[in-house]
Amino acid sequence: MPIRSFILALLLFALTQNNLFSQGFNGGISVGLAATQVDGDGHGGFDKAGPIVGVWTSRKFSRNISGSLEVRYIQKGSYAKNQLDGITVGYYRMRLHYTELPITVIYNLNDKINFSGGIGVAYLWKATEEDVYGPFPEEDIAQFRNYEVSGRIGIDYLLTSKLSVCLNFSYSVLPIRPHSGNISYRLDTGQFNNVMEITLKYQLGN
User: Fold this and answer.
1) Is the separation of the CB atoms in 83 and 68 below 8 Å?
2) Which residue in 64, 83, 92, 104 could disulfide with 116, CB within 3.0 to 4.6 Å?
3) Contact criterion met (CB below 8 Å) for 4 and 36
4) CATH of domain 2-204
5) What is the pTM of this model?
6) Which residues contact 53 (CB under 8 A, 6 or more apart)?
7) What does the pLDDT read at residue 185?
8) How far is CA 62 from CA 20, 26, 105, 111, in A?
9) How far apart are CA 157 and CA 104, in angstroms?
10) Which pLDDT score, from 0 to 100, does residue 189 have?
């Protein structure tokens, strides 16, 4: 269901892009890579890589301010290796598949550099965990929340009039799942997605 919805969104974007552009909107496609970790899972480091692919649209509100809405697939999660004397003897991998809608306000510093900030609202449609012994049984996987709200900041650098490279950082506002037994300590209330992204954005149309 989520995959079909995402493909439908891409098709609708392609069919309506000319009408959007005629109303003062810009739009295009984005592809990239996310380096992710899950704070609170007992592992550290941005060792999990995940793909990003989506479509976006934006509109200018003033000389320096514009807004952007994106629909995209992003894979988050975590990865850790267990090593003994430099030899890998085990691993842990968490994969979280999201359809995400980043909503951002963009400040145009000059002809090349933009700063952005906003929120991301995401729907989790698949979650898996595995180790060296194989995938965890579904009944052994603690329940993830099926949504995520994150705060995000970023910077874009225009390579050409249509192509830009974007660096973004995002962090969950609410836990993506509680600790086992719903145990919390002060501000440590569960697990949180911690994500660094690099994407290429290409503008379609004029």
Assistant:
1) no
2) 104
3) no
4) 2.40.160.20
5) 0.85
6) 29, 30, 31, 32, 72, 73
7) 63
8) 18, 14, 12, 15
9) 16
10) 79
